[in-house]
Write a structure and sequence with these properties.
- This protein is α/β, with parallel strands linked by helices.
- The protein folds into two domains: 12-42 and 285-385, Aspartate Aminotransferase, domain 1, CATH 3.90.1150; 45-282, 3-Layer(aba) Sandwich (Aspartate Aminotransferase, domain 2), CATH 3.40.640.
- 38% of the residues lie in helices and 15% in strands.
- The protein has a seven-stranded mixed sheet with strand order 2-8-7-6-5-3-4, with helices on both faces. A four-stranded antiparallel sheet has the order 9-10-13-12. A two-stranded parallel ribbon has the order 1-11.
- α7 (180-193) links the parallel β5 and β6.
- α11 runs parallel beside α14.
Amino acid sequence: MTTRSQATFPPPIPEARRWLDGVTFSPDRPLINLSQAAPVDPPPPQLRRAMAEAMERAETHLYGPVLGNDGLRAALAANWAHHYGGSVGPDQVAITAGCNQAFAATIAALTTEGDEVILPVPWYFNHKMWLDMSGVTAVPLTSGPDLIPSAEDAAGLITARTRAIALVSPNNPGGVEYPPETLRAFFQLAREQGLRLILDETYRDFHSQPGAPHDLLTTSDWDKTLIQLYSFSKSYRLTGHRAGAIIADPDLLREMEKFQDTVAICAPQMGQMAAEWGLSNLADWVAEQRDEILARRRAIADHFPQLEAKGWKLLGLGAYFAYIEHPFAETSAQIAPKLVREAGVLLLPGSMFFPDGDPSGDRHFRVAFANTDAAGIKDFVERLAVLDWPLAAQKGAA
């Protein structure tokens, strides 16, 4: 017998880290790790002080409400309503132990054995892993050359077993920001077909547009169709404290409460308290972090022509990520460990974001630039530019 876990591919980040085993890097040429989109710096000092004070409060060490602390739910509802110009109440917010758990709770509430969820490819690998382990079929939706999926194409994939369409914008792994009209088209499709539209907005705070990325929350009864997912990990550097959120229909959240109660009971109290303090006090600091991410994005764009001259292509660029195509004869899965050994660069190959047997990712890499800076990006580009490996055959070549 093969369990669902055994049938699911290994987590990509730990697998990539194993490529570092036995490899040493000199001080003058350290590893450039562009594999994971999680900040490694601690929360800002003012938030750490607030968290230290929270340690002395008895409730920090106790179970809390299954769907999250009332104060945080109210604060996030107010933040969401202000940002999107729509109506959001605390009863439409649930707090989870990270955004991955938000997705897992959502799928548990929406699906049963043999159901289907449409995922654009390249997809976020943890979404695919959870669907596999839930007995739910991930139906791949091919994106265009701009990495933007089409609602019209998605309509052709809907069957009697389809329960939802899951999007990530700004996208992981592609970095691209889905245009408002694209999100509106998916929303309309889901509403017409009686499906749920799951919109993972983990990287919302790093969107290149400062205002609302869409107007879906201004639609009447939006919560009967739309489910939004969010993470405090990136915005406040709370990755180790596991704080995420779901914004959805209160009736659906009560179904998710069953999942939450049996998996984690409640999200960690420290993470929730930190997130609530951050919502009230860190708007200016988050804006500064956004500016820094946008500066790194510009650095990718500024330096990439050096790679373009060598046959590389920049397919997507946005919050935390660039998605690139290499010119070499070997596949990205073959090249990725070589990049560690010969260039001192750790990237995830595109094959980790596509279905098994789909060769589309063989030419791609995801570049996660959350933990570098403009100088590191310049160094990264220069290391790739000098690689002199056999090139792939050109299409149409004799």
